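Design request, tokens follow.
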């Protein structure tokens, strides 16, 4: 049995694509997963499963959400070891920053530096980003809501062919904690 976190993109944001967490937990249990827990209302669900891999589990959940709730949702599933490795590999001094200043954009597949070559990094300073294993670490000292770099990084052409979903550092750490409970 492996413990995973599923990251659902764009649910319960701005009053659209409403997905009650209690119903999401029930859906996950109906799919045969155990130890199901949700975190916040923004689309994080932790669960244990003895079957499938990250990609097949993500596809299964996306299909089930579309059937039950009537709208498509992008899903990324990652296991505890990966989530912990992402937190440990952070290239920024996370312990010295507020959670709102540091974000991780999770990708469904590897992305390389060439994808982001058009971005003039010096034009966005003091904001910065660094790539990791299927993630991008974003340092936005004034928060992501005011970040011009975050706005630039979210452009569809930069995310073409991959699912991308962002979480603040507090959520990154909480998902490591929640997935560690059963490992």
């Amino acid at each position: 049995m492996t413990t995973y976190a599923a990251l659902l993109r764009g649910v319960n944001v701005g009053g659209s694509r409403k997905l009650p967490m209690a119903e999401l937990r029930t859906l996950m249990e109906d799919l045969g997963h155990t130890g199901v827990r949700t975190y916040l209302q923004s689309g994080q669900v932790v669960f244990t499963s003895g079957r499938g891999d990250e990609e097949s589990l993500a596809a299964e959940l996306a299909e089930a959400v579309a059937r039950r709730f009537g709208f498509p949702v992008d899903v990324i599933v990652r296991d505890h070891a990966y989530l912990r490795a992402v937190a440990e590999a952070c290239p920024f001094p996370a312990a010295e920053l507020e959670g709102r200043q540091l974000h991780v954009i999770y990708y469904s597949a590897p992305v390389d530096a060439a994808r982001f070559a058009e971005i003039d990094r010096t034009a966005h300073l003091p904001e910065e980003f660094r790539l990791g294993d299927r993630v991008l670490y974003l340092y936005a000292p004034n928060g992501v809501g005011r970040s011009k770099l975050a706005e630039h990084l979210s452009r569809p052409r930069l995310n073409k062919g991959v699912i991308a979903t962002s979480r603040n550092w507090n959520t990154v750490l909480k998902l490591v904690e929640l997935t560690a409970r059963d490992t």
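Comment from the thread starter after seeing the answer: thanks! The longest helix spans residues 54-69.
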